Amino acid sequence: MPSHLSPGVREQLALALRGTLRTARQGAALTQDEMARRIGLAPSTYGRLERGTMAPGPATLRQLCRALCLSLDALVGPECAAAVDRASPPPRRPARRRRSSAPAPEVLPLLLMRRGTPLALVVDVE
Predict the structure, then answer these.
(1) Taking Cα atoms as reference points, which of 54, 67, 50, 74 lies closest to residue 1?
(2) Region Disordered: what ranges (predicted)?
């Protein structure tokens, strides 16, 4: 867990996950290995999250919520969710792309795949 969360919040978060994570995963009909693969963790690390011996960071919490289709409040409770939101840095905005000074092409070639068969399609932009 990131060091900017107090030890009390980390402990509270681990306990909250211990109570809900296994139930939510089983409700989604996923094994521990499948869940670990979906969120990019080793199965042993995911097991530690379920047992409550380890608290995840904010990014891992968001991945858990996405994989289980749950809100952070539903997963860890409103108190822990508020503490995690306060401790999380604001999301970074993507850098703006500069517009190219080159003229736009008149025709955009697109390649579509359907059932493994490439289909060529040309779209006229004008």
Answers:
(1) 54
(2) 82-106
Q: Report yes or no on whether pTM surpasses 0.85.
A: no
Give all strands (DSSP E) within 1-126, no chain letters. 107-114, 117-124
Cα–Cα distance for residue pair 112/121, rounded to 1 Å: 7
Of 46, 60, 52, 49, which Cα lies nearest the Cα of 12?
52
- Domain enclosing residue 49, as ranges: 7-87
CATH number of the domain to which 24 belongs: 1.10.260.40
Using N-to-C axis directions, what is the helix angle for 7-27 and 58-68, rounded to 10°? 20
Predicted confidence (pLDDT) per residue in 28-61, tens digit: 899 999 999 999 999 999 999 999 999 888 888 8
- The total number of structural domains that make up the chain: 1
| Amino acid (1-letter code) at residue 34 | E
